[in-house]
Design goal:
The protein has strands at residues 2-6, 9-12, 17-24, 30-38, 45-50, 57-59, 67-72, 77-82, 91-99, 104-107, 111-116. The chain is mostly beta strands and 117 residues long.
Length: 117
């Protein structure tokens, strides 16, 4: 499975961005998916996650009410709608997928989100 993120960029505080993660390869084996982020000097953190069918989602407290995760399994794509962005949301955002019976982690290469104040 290959994961490719897109949609990052520079935005002013209060603005919005929509990230996409396109999966290819053995997509039938993808289980839960999620978005992580990492800013300089900090550990990678889970931002949001979604189950295989999309029925259950999880959000970090820092993004609740501002970010929305979704997935379109027909298009093998996951999304992260980010609204009311803050400078502290600046980070590289990574797509993660749990693959197969062992839920092995697969990662995209990341997309940079920069929020200016």
């Amino acid at each position: 499975v290959q994961l490719v993120e897109s949609g990052g960029g520079l935005v002013q505080a209060g603005g919005s961005l929509r990230l996409s993660c396109a999966a290819s390869g053995s997509t039938f084996s993808i289980n839960a998916m999620g978005w992580f982020r990492q800013s300089p000097g900090k550990q990678r953190e889970l931002v949001a996650a979604i189950t295989s069918g999309g029925g259950t989602t999880y959000y970090a407290d820092s993004v609740k009410g501002r970010f929305t995760i979704s997935r379109d399994n027909a298009k093998n794509t996951m999304y992260l709608q980010m609204n009311s962005l803050r400078p502290e949301d600046t980070a590289v955002y990574y797509c993660n997928a749990k693959i197969g019976a062992d839920s092995m982690d697969y990662w995209g290469k990341g997309t940079l989100v920069t929020v200016s104040s």
